[in-house]
Task: inverse folding
């Protein structure tokens, strides 16, 4: 199923590709934060961003050269006073939305599609269930209607007995 | 014909076919070219010999920037192609620069001695330029136009023929 979501994501992504811009042309939004905040925010941002040379690992979780370089860059930008959004936009501007481990909230289709699919599935099951219970209720009558007449049954019994006697 | 089954089937199949038709048009190995058309991020680095080079100084010229490493096999594959392209286009005013990716000066010196060199390679110990250019792996080659914007990004080994077509077009402008 993963490939399907990947394709959905790519379709949605292509529609938004033109909206992306290179960030950091603007000044930092905040004053340079304290050392502790720099560490915390660097780690949190590293968890959101994908290591470009790894298989599904975040920047925070990878020790590859590329991830370490990205961590250093995040730390540098946080220390300069750039906001989380500015830093995320900076990376998106370079690596595309591929760099995000989770699609953006504006891609509502990707987020809601599983729920829509689940709803449709439950609806389908309920529909089938309803129709099968209806069939069960109908069955006795249907059997009664289709049952062969007693006259035919007697004829069949007689034939059967005759054959057994032989 | 059972129209109920048919309509439910269509409800699922039509979006699926649409998604597949769209999705199969993508190259799954293609990396995004986010910076194409944007101003090339500036860098001020030193060559392996210690000479300072900044992209800003080269504004007005067409610049080819190649990110490479000695441990990268496809980089060796394109090395001769890049040297050949540099020998042809440097006299026409095109600047060629290499930027070392995740490697050491000593290894790069040895590599270039062995395989030849036609343009300077820059050291970026902080790996900042790689990130500024969104380099996800090596080799990646960027062609920067006279106005300082990125015209094209090549992911993977580039050939002389590819560069020839693009550079001739840019120089004719």
Result:
């Amino acid at each position: 199923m993963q490939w399907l979501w990947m394709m959905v994501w790519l379709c949605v992504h292509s529609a938004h590709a033109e909206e992306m811009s290179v960030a950091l042309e603007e000044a930092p939004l905040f004053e340079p934060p304290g050392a502790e905040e720099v560490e915390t925010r660097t780690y949190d941002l590293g968890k959101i961003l994908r290591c470009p040379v790894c298989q599904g690992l975040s920047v925070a979780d990878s020790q590859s050269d590329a991830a370490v370089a990205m961590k250093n860059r995040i730390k540098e930008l946080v220390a300069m006073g750039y906001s989380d959004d500015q830093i995320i936009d900076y990376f998106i501007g370079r690596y595309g939305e591929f760099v995000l481990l989770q699609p953006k909230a504006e891609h509502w289709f990707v987020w809601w599609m599983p729920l829509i699919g689940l709803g449709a599935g439950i609806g389908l099951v309920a529909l089938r269930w309803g129709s099968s219970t209806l069939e069960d209720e109908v069955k006795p009558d249907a059997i009664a209607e289709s049952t062969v007449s007693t006259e035919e049954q007697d004829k069949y019994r007689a034939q059967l007995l005759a054959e057994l006697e032989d | 014909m059972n129209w109920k089954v048919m309509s439910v089937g269509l409800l699922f199949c039509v979006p699926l076919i649409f998604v597949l038709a769209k999705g199969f048009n993508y190259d799954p190995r293609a990396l995004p070219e986010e910076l194409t058309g944007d101003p090339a991020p500036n860098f001020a680095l030193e060559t392996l010999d210690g000479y300072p080079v900044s992209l800003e100084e080269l504004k007005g010229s067409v610049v080819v920037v190649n990110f490479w490493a000695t441990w990268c096999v496809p980089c060796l594959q394109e090395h001769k192609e890049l040297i050949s392209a540099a020998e042809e286009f440097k006299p026409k005013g095109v600047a060629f620069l290499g930027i070392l990716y995740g490697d050491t000066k000593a290894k790069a010196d040895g590599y270039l001695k062995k395989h030849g060199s036609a343009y300077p390679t820059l050291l970026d110990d902080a790996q900042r330029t790689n990130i500024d250019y969104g380099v996800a792996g090596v080799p990646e080659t960027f062609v920067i136009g006279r106005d300082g914007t990125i015209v094209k990004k090549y992911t993977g080994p580039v050939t002389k023929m590819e560069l020839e077509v693009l550079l001739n077009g840019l120089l004719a402008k």
